Structure prediction request, 220 residues.
Amino acid sequence: MHICGKCGKEFKTEDAYLAHTCKDTGVTPKDGLSMGLHYTAIQEAAIKRGSKK
Amino acid sequence: MAATVEICESNGAGETITHNITDSDMGNQDSATIDPVAYPVTPGNRTYAKYQRIHVTNMGGSSKIDNLQVWRTGALGGSATHVTNARTSSYGGAATYATPTTSAVSGADQTMPTSDPGAANLGIGGSLTGSLTGTGYSDYLIHQIVTNAGDTAGSTSTMNYQYDETA
Prediction:
């Protein structure tokens, strides 16, 4: 079973989880906003680290 | 666009996966959302082991996710210790999920770093040099708090999960 840690909704499959629009975040788990309000800073920092290699 | 990443926790005999967790509640119950005050650890015992993974749900046009690093900042209560399978050398490969218990987990015997380890300490595909080029999961991060018989209070600290992304 898969549970959305944000809205608590339960799913039988991961695909179903990934397709749902979360009532807490307002987006699907594939959307960057699901990472939280500071998602752009998280993503930019990850890309900056990756670009240094 | 960039990759979308979440932390997932696995619990129970049938491996229920709770996605996009916001904290690691460690105590005397196998659950992603326990109240540690309601389920405190008896001093001298261990918390239930946590099995967590970094999950890439969308590459967002990027080509690679790698260099996973995990550490804790903040002190533990009393003289408790925090053990894990995360390590920067002699990595034990991808851990297999097992129903979490309060027993010691084989291979999860390293001290959780308390600062950025500076190099990958959690693998992908069983290797610290592994990478994700599409959606998927990291290896399991196993961690557990080991309390001392003289410990009387819990604590709150911060788990840090870091990844590199190649656009």
